[in-house]
Design brief:
26% helix, 227 residues, single chain, alpha/beta, 10 strands, disordered C terminus, 6 helices, four-stranded antiparallel beta sheet, six-stranded mixed beta sheet
C-alpha cells in the first residue's frame, strides 16, 4: 500500500525574480528517512519550509495525507530550524523553549508535560542549563535545546535542518543514537552537509540544487555514481 503522507507536485519557488526551486515532485512515505544534501544556496532550507507550509510556493501544490490516504490539513511535525532563524535575545529559558514544542497538545496535563520536558532535557544533556536563558547558551547548547523542542511531542514527522551545526563530536554521536531510535516510529527529513554516518541510516537520498534528484547509489554524495 502507498502510504504517502506528504506530496509535492510541480513546486517552484522564486525570490525577487530569482529561481530557488524548479518543478519539484516528491512523495514522502510513512517511515521514510530522507537525507537531503546539495550545494549552498541550492534551495534545501527553502524546500523544507515549503514542505512545512511555512511559505507558499510560487507554483505547485503541497498536500498532507493520513495513513489511509485521505487528505488532512495538518500533520504532527517536529521541526529543528537553522540556528540563525532563532532570536537568542528573546527572554526564554531552555526549559520553556523545549516546553513550547508541546503547544497545541490538548491531551497532556501540566504535570505530565513537566515530566516529558525533564526527560527530553536529560536526553539532550541540558538538565544543568534548564533555567538558563537561551541567550547565555553556546551555539551547541542552543542547537541541543532546539533539538529537544523538536523531539518533545514525539512527532510523527521530524524535520531537521542542519542538526549537526555547532555540535561537538561527542554529542554528534549521541544525535546518531537519537535518530536511530526515532526512525523506528517516525518519518524523518534531514538536511545536512555531513552525510558520512547519516547516509548509512537514511532510506532515501535527495540532492537539491534548484531541482530535486533522488540518488540510488550506495554513496549518493559521489555524483558519478548517481543515476
Amino acid at each position: 500500500m502507498d502510504e504517502t503522507i506528504i506530496r509535492l507536485h510541480g513546486v517552484s519557488m522564486r525570490w525577487d525574480h530569482r529561481e530557488v526551486l524548479r518543478d519539484i515532485d516528491l512523495d514522502v512515505r510513512c517511515g521514510d528517512f530522507l537525507a537531503i544534501t546539495g550545494p549552498n544556496g541550492g534551495g534545501k532550507s527553502t524546500l523544507l519550509k515549503v514542505i512545512l507550509k511555512l511559505i507558499k510556493p510560487t507554483s505547485g501544490t503541497v498536500g498532507y495525507f493520513n495513513r489511509d490516504g485521505a487528505p488532512v490539513q495538518r500533520l504532527h511535525i517536529g521541526y529543528l530550524p537553522q540556528k540563525n532563524m532563532i532570536d537568542s535575545r528573546f527572554p526564554i529559558t531552555v526549559r520553556e523553549t523545549v516546553l513550547s514544542g508541546l503547544l497545541g497538545m490538548r491531551d497532556i496535563g501540566r504535570e505530565e508535560a513537566s515530566e516529558v520536558v525533564s526527560r527530553i532535557l536529560r536526553l539532550v544533556e541540558l538538565e544543568e542549563h534548564s533555567d538558563s536563558p537561551i541567550g547565555e547558551l553556546s551555539g551547541g547548547q542552543l542547537q541541543r535545546t532546539l533539538l529537544g523542542r523538536a523531539l518533545v511531542s514525539d512527532p510523527a514527522v521530524l524535520v531537521l535542518d542542519e542538526p549537526l551545526s555547532y555540535i561537538d563530536k561527542n554529542f554528534e554521536r549521541r544525535i546518531y543514537d537519537i535518530l536511530a531510535e526515532v526512525s523506528r516510529r517516525a518519518t524523518i527529513l534531514l538536511v545536512s552537509h555531513e552525510m558520512s554516518v547519516i547516509s548509512t541510516m537514511a532510506t532515501r537520498h535527495l540532492i537539491v540544487d534548484r531541482t530535486l534528484h533522488e540518488c540510488t547509489a550506495k554513496h549518493h554524495y559521489v555524483p558519478s555514481e548517481c543515476r
